[in-house]
Amino acid sequence: MRFTVYLAGQIHDNWREQFRSALNERGLPFDCVGPQEDHDLSDNVGESIVGEQPSKRWKDETASQVNNLRTRVLMARADVVVALFGGKYKQWNTAMDASLAIAMNKPVVIVRQTEHIHALKELSQRAQLTVETVEQAVEALAYIVR
């Protein structure tokens, strides 16, 4: 049996590739999906579909609509959601994705550093598991199929 994991979180570094590699190295039966990792494509997708917008605000609005469609479809198909809250970037998208997953009754694993314990306490209480490293999240998924 194969499982699908939605990898929620910032798209500015290669944490997803590290996650995929760790799953593959262990031979774990998980396929990974997530937000569009091409930042320019993500920012411009609204205009590429519906046309040029009158301002940056509306450009962002239309891109958000298309990106939210993608998130909802892929998350609906996922068996579990891993939401990474890193330290470098603002984490609004991650919080939105984790909240959506909880509302969709998806199992959620939150990955957050110790400095985010207080800020994420409510989300952590709704998640099935909160860990501090990507490796711990991979280990939790490994336990599912052990």
Question: Could you describe the 3D structure shown?
Answer:
It is a single chain. The protein is of the alpha/beta class. 51% of the residues lie in helices and 17% in strands. It is built from six helices and five strands. Strands 2-1-3-4-5 form a five-stranded parallel sheet, with helices on both faces. Helix 4 links the parallel strand 3 and strand 4. Helix 2 crosses helix 3. The longest helix has 22 residues, at 56-77. The protein is globular and about 50 Å long. The relative contact order is 0.19.
Distance between the termini: 12 Å
Q: Average pLDDT across residues?
A: 95
Architecture, CATH level 2?
3-Layer(aba) Sandwich
| Number of helical elements | 6
CATH topology descriptor: Rossmann fold
Would you state the CATH class?
A: Alpha Beta
* Physical arrangement of strands within the biggest beta sheet: 2-1-3-4-5
Which structural class do the helices and strands define?
Answer: alpha/beta
Quaternary organisation of the protein chains: single chain
Whole-number radius of gyration?
Answer: 16 Å
Helix content: 40-55%
Strand content: 15-25%
Total count of strands: 5
H-E string: EHEHHEHEHEH
Low-confidence stretches: none
The gross shape turns out to be globular
How can the largest sheet be summarized? Answer: 5 strands, parallel
> Can you tell me the number of structural domains?
1
